[in-house]
Design goal:
Structural class: mainly alpha
Largest sheet: none
Order of helices and strands: HHHH
Radius of gyration: 22 Å
Shape: elongated
Strand content: under 5%
Helix content: 55-70%
Distance between the termini: 42 Å
């Protein structure tokens, strides 16, 4: 794989070599993004578990409307839109 990147020092490239280089870069990026997304998903699950356990320990009932997960207009909102929709104040950290 590194030989592909070392060949980038050349000034001209054959079309097939450009395709090979781009395929290599694509695979590296895809692997990295997949790994990061899996890590984010695991962290989100752990965070939510902690929130739910803490709520349960304090006697707080949490109601979740799971139908919103299927609503594209809700799932594509930006963080600012969520803040506006719930009337929450954004934290200024």
């Amino acid at each position: 794989m590194w030989s592909l990147f070392l060949s980038l020092l050349e000034e001209m490239y054959p079309v097939d070599e450009v395709g090979t280089i781009l395929d290599g870069v694509k695979q590296l990026i895809k692997g990295q993004v997949t790994e990061e997304m899996e890590k984010l998903a695991q962290q989100s699950v752990l965070y939510l578990r902690q929130v739910f356990l803490q709520a349960e320990g304090n006697g707080v009932a949490i109601n979740v409307d799971l139908s919103q997960l299927d609503d594209a207009s809700v799932t594509q909102r930006t963080p600012e839109q969520y803040t506006d929709a719930c009337g929450c104040a954004a934290s200024s950290s």
